[in-house]
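Consider this record:
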Amino acid sequence: MKKTGAQIVCECMINEGVDVMFGFPGGVLLPFYDTLPEYPQIRHILVRHEQGAAHAADGYARATGRVGICMATSGPGATNLVTGIANAYLDSVPIIALTGQVARPFIGKDAFQEIDISGITLPITKHSYVAMDAASLPKIMKEAFYIAQTGRPGPVLIDLPKDVLQESAEFTYPEKVNLPGYKIPTRGHPTQLKNAARLISEAQKPVIIAGRGVVISQAGEELKEFAETCQMPVITTLLGIGSFPESHVLSYGMAGMHGSGYANRALTDTDLVVAVGMRFDDRITGEINLMPRSFISTLTPLKSARMWR
């Protein structure tokens, strides 16, 4: 059955279980907003500024564990999403940013409110698409949701030219994705794990730093079992709060410039840091040359494939 590009975008969101999105209309998005009332399953929350849409989608994703959707028109509307997209990228939050774009014949011609938003956001997205025909939209949307939620979660941007939203195409939603170059580690490297075990057994004052990756993957129980087995104190990052019970005897609380003195002292005096689901942000590390000589940066799951889910 043929549907317009705007209808296909809505159908894809419904297939992915989307029931709320945050957006601000603009000229090139009028085909989408004209179509949206046909889909009462999708609640659209009108923001007062596009940046609010990106941050709202970010907050929604953090609170629900689902993909947050934000939308803005071309040019200044799209660029106003950038701060929120960057925030989601740094904090591993799954959002999809839908941006309007000028019609295909005008792309690359400095048209009114034309901007290369996929190029601008290239360093702060997991992936980005420019949909050049309506027929490609189901595949693009399916891949975008998959990429945003899997591995280390993060934002994906889809740029939608106005005439693509108006164009008609046959709609069939794919059942699965085929991304040969996108591989998600599900098991630790045996040699690296043996080396890690050796370093832990030899360390005199090892500590664990737990970050948001533990929260995202719901691997708190595995972290607790690991810490108790090895009798290693657990320090959290700001975004790792909640990954380990702070009432536990091994809990040292949060470290960093806003953390506790004893957590920072433990990091200063340790001879081994086992990092789980964190990125060594400078708010934690301070000056790198003052950090301990040995690190284990464990991006491999405690909970196998679920670590970064």
